[in-house]
Amino acid sequence: MSDESMTPQERPGGIRATGRGRKAPGARRGALTITAWSAAGLTLLGGAGLGYVYFQLDGNLKGVDINAALGTDRPHNVDNGSMDILLMGSDSRAGANGKYGDDGSGERADTAMVLHVHKGHKKASVVSIPRDTMVGRPECKKPSGGTSPAVERGMFNESYQAGGPACAVKTVEKMSGIRMDHYVEVDFTGFKKLINELGGVPVDTSEPIKDKSSKLDLQPGKHTLDGEQALGLVRTRHAVGDGSDLGRIQLQQAFLKALISQVKHVDVFGDPGKLYGLADTATRTVTTDSELSSVNKLVSFTKGLKGIEGNDMNMVTLPVNYDKDDPNRVLPMEKQSREVWNALLHDRPVPKSATKGTAGDRAGATGVVKSS
């Protein structure tokens, strides 16, 4: 059996997929960015008549000027009616996030997704980029001054540490050849509050999920997850599938579909207090590019996305296989990855053949969690 066909358990040394030497995995903010996008969109659209409250919500938003940081060193902006957004979560342990551990490694890109909204804004494709993917990182300017040199081979999640959001965007654009129209980042303590404000998220689990690291213990069946449980679910990897970070991505993708469905069905319009609570939490949770960092701009942005339901999103993992030289890392499969990025570049659906048989496809966590 070749290394590429082996599961992490079969491969010598297994796979931790934490990207942090031999330290225990930390909290996962990860793909939860779509949560903030969905909830902010719903609540801000409903709150268009809140008047002076807008000024307070405006003050909650944090913006990063990606265009100024990157200048002209970017792919051509293809104007075909589609839109590409880099959705990220970083693993800072600052403030309230410190309860989830501190490994002393600084802030990194814990999870990243490229959200491609197809022309007409009725369908979307999502490509998850595993954090331990070994990539070439371009030279990046540090937010504090100075420069991080280019590297031929480095973990994708280190791009954020090397140069902040702008470096993460630049790295994704180099990988994909696609210019990102927007950037959205989420904070996981704010995300927990958001889930609780929503009243929880219903899910249906097909098997037990018990993970000491994420402190999650669910029996098979229907559950309404509160904020802490939801965070535990998207952190979980040991208890499902092959125990890898790739299986965790499959859990995240399934949970996000359930979450988006829940956001669409919550009746906030009859409860001004609930509406404001959601809008306030959502705007405190996200950091965006400067083109979205005001309530009016964010409202306009989310109006264009409000027709997309969970079932309208095709979620895939970037085609990767385990690195033969280091079973704790993954490498992009050149031909299949190019098929994925070319599909988005030309506003086409990602072909199933591009992800079939890849390590992400074999992770074994598909179907463990579904919308309830």
Total helices: the number is 10
Quantity of strands, as a count = 18
Amino-to-carboxy terminus distance: 39 Å
Reading the helices and strands in chain order gives HHEHEEEEEEEHEHEEEEHHHEHEEEHE
Q: Percent helix among the residues?
A: 25-40%
Would you identify the regions where 5 or more consecutive residues have pLDDT less than 50?
A: 1-33, 42-50, 93-98, 100-105
CATH topology of the domain at 24-188 and 286-361: Nucleotidyltransferase, domain 5
Mean pLDDT: 81
The coarse overall form would be: globular
CATH classification class of the domain at 24-188 and 286-361: Alpha Beta
Strands ordered across the widest β-sheet: 1-14-9-2-3-4-15
Task: Describe the main β-sheet briefly.
Answer: 7 strands, mixed
β-strand percent reads 15-25%
Could you give a short description of this structure?
This protein is an alpha+beta fold and about 375 residues long.
